[in-house]
């Protein structure tokens, strides 16, 4: 599952990821700003997910959410 | 992007909120209006007056706090590599939302920051404002759940990100080139209040210095009063709310220690007692903040990071504040303005229209 939140600002990235946090399927999230990165990571961690951040270049980060 | 940001933690946002609360009371002690140590809506209104965009003589002053917020955020975002020129997400809609936000806030007489400061000063009328703010933001979450979005922003030319901070720097230059002359209502092109809230201000260096620090800290912590209630309602996430709560607690403690707490409804500083319009003014403003994605303070911090959409919102507030005084919609201590009720309702209807029109499920 890949969720692309590039260009969007809070709360939309979290809103897009939120429904998937109740499941357990791996989710990758593309973010292009630190605020979204922090918000998505915080939401995932709060729901018991592990978050790995990988730089994709040009300010884009792939967040790998794993249960 | 950076890896570790201590201000993104719960402790970080609490510290930043507490610093803002204490700083606001400090600014009041050194001259800013009572229960208005920092008010983004009021101060943008004062700047509109200082530039002559409205001629309400008691609210004209180029507030260094607003300039400092933007430049502090700019400095910090450059230092940590988060300055990112971006924009193009429905700028005109954001401008209109900014106008509506200012008009609504000036019916209540305060932005969310001042709502907290008024409460911390014992002003019971602010309870109606707070209730309105929360209802307005709750209205915003209704639209978010329906898929509301103003669309993606895109990376822009660096000049687009620099422009708003440069406007602020230019205003700072004007302020320094044409400082207030005691007893004179004008200095060069700028207007300066001789009495009223616009005449009450802390010394420049204190106002500007404190604002630079707050701008830098708020950039790091993403402090946002609207986001605090929005995230609580939408996700039951209290992270940003802790910051707002810390601001309130710090301000009330500082007020208690310095004799600034006076509980009651009557004769509160720069406030009126019309509960219905205190409430509805902030419903309109709260909804506008939610639909635009940030409280007035947060919009300034984002504008400092290069977000030209946030800058457009801030300019909308500046124009809306000027209109509020030119068209008689702004309140005063005597009560709401001649057209305050109509403006509040028109603003609310416009927000609802924008909310439905930009919702995917509409």
Question: What are the salient characteristics of this protein?
Answer:
A: alpha+beta; Translation Initiation Factor IF3; 4-stranded mixed sheet; 4 strands; globular; B: 362 residues; mainly alpha; two-stranded antiparallel sheet; 63% helix
Characterization of this structure:
With about 70 residues, chain A is an alpha+beta fold. Chain A has a single domain, classed as TusA-like domain (Translation Initiation Factor IF3, 2-Layer Sandwich), CATH 3.30.110. Chain A has helices at about 10-15, 35-45; strands at about 1-5, 25-30, 50-55, 60-65. In chain A, strands 1-2-4-3 form a 4-stranded mixed beta sheet. The longest helix of chain A has 13 residues, at about 35-45. Chain B has about 350 residues and is an all-alpha fold. Chain B has one domain. Chain B contains 14 helices and 4 strands. Chain B has a two-stranded antiparallel sheet. A two-stranded antiparallel sheet of chain B has the order 3-4. In chain B, a hairpin with a 2-residue loop joins strand 3 (about 185) and strand 4. The longest helix of chain B has 21 residues, at about 125-145. The radius of gyration of chain B is 19 Å and the shape is globular. Chain B starts with 9 loop residues before the first helix and ends in a 5-residue tail after the last helix. The relative contact order of chain B is 0.24. The interface between A and B is medium-sized, with 22 and 23 residues.
Blueprint (SSEs and pairs):
The complex is a heterodimer of chains A (67) and B (362).
Chain A: E1 2-4, H1 12-17, E2 27-31, H2 34-46, E3 50-57, E4 60-66
Parallel strand pairs in A: 1-2
Antiparallel strand pairs in A: 2-4, 3-4
Chain B: H1 10-29, H2 40-50, H3 64-79, E1 86-87, H4 91-108, H5 112-120, H6 125-145, E2 154-155, H7 158-177, E3 186-187, E4 190-191, H8 204-221, H9 225-235, H10 239-258, H11 275-292, H12 296-304, H13 308-326, H14 340-357
Antiparallel strand pairs in B: 1-2, 3-4
Helix pairs in contact in B: 1-8, 1-10, 2-13, 3-7, 3-8, 3-12, 4-11, 4-13, 4-14, 5-6, 5-10, 6-9, 6-11, 8-12, 9-10, 11-14, 12-13
